[in-house]
């Protein structure tokens, strides 16, 4: 049965026995911020589902437990409960504790944690990934800009970063950089905020976006008409886009994430790739000459265009040798250049990159396993009032022996339209931002705690963007 078909009152036992109905109820409650997503949407009517139903009934002022047409219609038609956003606003400590409880109750595979490894298959937005690239080409109506907003910087120049703007982040978030975007005269204006934003750190697998983007830029510089989606490495079965998806999603169709990223780094000498990043971000202190703990799955890669049959790139044969030490700013700068490509002047864009190639990278990055933005939207109860979302990201995590700490890194680009107060005369509010965060805790604290902390602080960032506490 579906909620739409409820005419007469059902007993709680009847509801419990109907897996399809319970699943629909859980999805509706998730959208209102009353029920966690991911693996908890399972059709099993347990205490968590019952408590969420009671919270809903209390919020809208209907009897509980009374599973009748009135209950069904309220659950079907209610788009948002402002009280949910209010609770998150008033009590950040409780938000973190709720997320930690969810994380502890979720048991992913060994070595995995709830939000970092939730997976795209458990995301509401999986069906929308094919729309991301087109959405990123849309120019939105200009909005009132803060006086601190400035034009996006040219390649090689570091913008002014407000070092106090992220003081609200928890102390477990060691470094962070956020860039908020707004439209003005068809151009993106930006505001940069940081917490130790230029400190060089290991950002684990989050930095794998760099060799992916570099390969696209290099290929399109040499052959502007080539679409990277038509390219392969050494053998036709090794499609570049499949390798990029393996790197982002860890699915392992062609290669492991580490071996794939190491392979793409071999299209440049370590020094040349490091210089390429420095010339884009302007940060001359970074180091990007290392690998990812595995040998490249192809040690002498060559990139071919399937359409013309021509070789586009070849490896110079220099081995990886060094460290990968970047700043949160560097990664935020690079992912924002991908997301805002259509709205940046030529001297601010990824050099040489063509959109026909970049849109494949957008689609690959939509498949990141980390779903912190999903969790933020769920926690804030905004799932039903956010439209046209784009969520692209890359996770990273590991245990640092030198720092004796569990660490999670997360780089993401997000945009959506907030329809909470929209009407025929008042369009929804366009929001867009890029972010990078690194969280760390030392034993006996656990990776589960870092995961919940990252989820809680990403939630707080999205909340502040929604309510214009970060403009």
Automatic annotation (TrEMBL):
<dbReference type="InterPro" id="IPR002477">
    <property type="entry name" value="Peptidoglycan-bd-like"/>
</dbReference>
<protein>
    <recommendedName>
        <fullName>Peptidoglycan binding-like domain-containing protein</fullName>
    </recommendedName>
</protein>
<feature type="domain" description="Peptidoglycan binding-like">
    <location>
        <begin position="19"/>
        <end position="56"/>
    </location>
</feature>
<dbReference type="InterPro" id="IPR036365">
    <property type="entry name" value="PGBD-like_sf"/>
</dbReference>
<dbReference type="InterPro" id="IPR036366">
    <property type="entry name" value="PGBDSf"/>
</dbReference>
<dbReference type="Pfam" id="PF01471">
    <property type="entry name" value="PG_binding_1"/>
</dbReference>
């Amino acid at each position: 049965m579906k909620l739409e078909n409820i005419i007469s009152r059902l007993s709680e036992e009847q509801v419990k026995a109907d897996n399809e109905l319970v699943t629909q109820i859980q999805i509706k409650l998730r959208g209102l911020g009353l029920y966690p997503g991911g693996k908890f949407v399972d059709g099993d009517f347990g205490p968590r589902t019952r408590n969420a139903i009671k919270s809903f009934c209390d919020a809208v002022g209907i009897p509980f437990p009374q599973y009748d047409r009135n209950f069904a219609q309220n659950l079907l038609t209610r788009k948002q409960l402002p009280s949910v956003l209010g609770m998150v606003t008033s009590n950040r400590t409780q938000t973190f504790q709720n997320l930690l409880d969810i994380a502890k109750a979720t048991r992913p595979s060994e070595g995995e944690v709830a939000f970092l490894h939730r997976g795209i298959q458990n995301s509401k937005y999986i069906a929308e990934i094919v729309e991301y690239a087109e959405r990123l080409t849309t120019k939105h109506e200009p909005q009132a800009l803060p006086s601190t907003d400035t034009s996006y910087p040219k390649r090689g120049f570091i913008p002014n970063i407000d070092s106090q703007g992220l003081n609200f982040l928890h102390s477990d978030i060691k470094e962070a950089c956020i860039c908020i975007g707004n439209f003005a005269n068809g151009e993106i204006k930006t505001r940069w905020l940081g917490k130790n934003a230029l400190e060089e750190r290991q950002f684990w697998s989050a930095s794998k976006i760099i060799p992916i983007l570099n390969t696209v830029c290099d290929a399109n510089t040499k052959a502007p008409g080539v679409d990277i989606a038509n390219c392969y490495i050494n053998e036709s079965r090794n499609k570049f886009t499949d390798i990029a998806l393996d790197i982002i999603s860890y699915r392992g169709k062609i290669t492991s994430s580490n071996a794939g990223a190491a392979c793409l780094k071999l299209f440049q000498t370590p020094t040349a790739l490091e210089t390429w990043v420095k010339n884009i971000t302007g940060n001359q202190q970074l180091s990007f000459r290392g690998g990812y703990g595995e040998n490249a799955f192809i040690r002498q890669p060559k990139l071919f265009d399937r359409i013309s049959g021509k070789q586009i790139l070849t490896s110079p044969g220099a081995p990886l040798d060094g460290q990968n030490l970047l700043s949160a700013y560097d990664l935020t700068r690079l992912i924002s250049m991908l997301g805002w490509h259509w709205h940046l002047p030529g001297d601010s864009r990824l050099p040489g990159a063509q959109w026909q190639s970049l849109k494949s990278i957008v689609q690959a990055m939509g498949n990141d396993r980390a779903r912190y933005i999903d969790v933020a939207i769920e926690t804030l109860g905004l799932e039903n009032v956010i439209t046209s979302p784009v969520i692209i990201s890359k996770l990273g995590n590991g245990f640092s022996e030198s720092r004796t700490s569990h660490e999670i890194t997360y780089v993401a680009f997000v945009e959506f339209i907030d329809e909470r107060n929209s009407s025929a005369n008042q369009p929804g509010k366009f929001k867009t931002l890029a972010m990078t965060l690194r969280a760390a805790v030392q034993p006996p604290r656990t990776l589960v705690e870092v995961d919940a902390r990252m989820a809680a602080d990403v939630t707080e960032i999205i909340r502040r963007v929604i309510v214009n506490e970060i403009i």
